[in-house]
Every structure is written in C-alpha cells, then in structure tokens.
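Today's session is about reading a structure prediction critically. Students often jump straight to the picture, but the first step is always the sequence itself: look for stretches that repeat, for charged clusters, for runs of hydrophobic residues. Only then move on to the predicted structure, which in these notes is written as discrete structure tokens rather than atom positions. Here is the chain we will use throughout the hour.
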Amino acid sequence: MDRHYDLTYLNQVFHGNESMVQEIVHLFLSQAPQFGRDMTTCAQEGRWADLHPLAHKLKSSVNMLGMRGLVPMVLDIERISKFGEDPSALPELVSMLTRDMEVACRVLSQDLSESVAGQNQRSKGLRRA
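Below is the predicted structure for this chain, in token form.
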C-alpha cells in the first residue's frame, strides 16, 4: 500500500477547514481498531453475514479518507458476506484488511500528531496524500 490516505475529499467538503478534517480523522482513528476486532471475531467464528454491515460501514470511512489501498478489500468482504459467495476467502481478506488498516492508522495518527504540534508553527495541516 504505497498511499495510505488522501484527505483531498475531506478538504473539499470542509473547504479547507483543518479542525473539521482533524475531527473526522480523530473519529476514524478511535473507531477503526474496534472495526478490526469485530471483523476478526466474525471471521474467526464463521459469522459471515455479520461481516456485511461492518464492511458496509467501514466502506464510507475508507473512501472518505482516501484509503484507496483498503477499498478493494472492504468491497470484497462486503460483497462476499452479503451475497453468500464462497466464504473461504473471508478470513484471509479480513486479516489483510486489518493489517493494512493498522498501518494506515499508524501513519495517519503520526501525521495528525505532527500536524497538531505544528499548528502553533503555522503548519499546513495534515498532508493530503
């Protein structure tokens, strides 16, 4: 995953309001670990139908944050779990998604910390991509 996130969309929606962008990022960072845990539990327990609503909710967040590397996995999990396709791929997909989401969250969290610290020094805010 070469580009972990791209906040261009959020910056457009909030007209460059850095505090609103940061609020959305904070919210995602606080919710993402639980999404990962819940999806992992569903996959481990073979509760395929329970993955669909989780993937559906996560889809909008990863799209909004420009996490293009995560989108295909989320869409695959959503599709397979919704339509009852062969679920044998789901444990590996969930594992890959969780791992890649952790990396993206680490990068995003680090960038957010640097942005907040740099605001007093007239930083440009969170990087866009």
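Discussion point for the tutorial: The mean pLDDT is 90.
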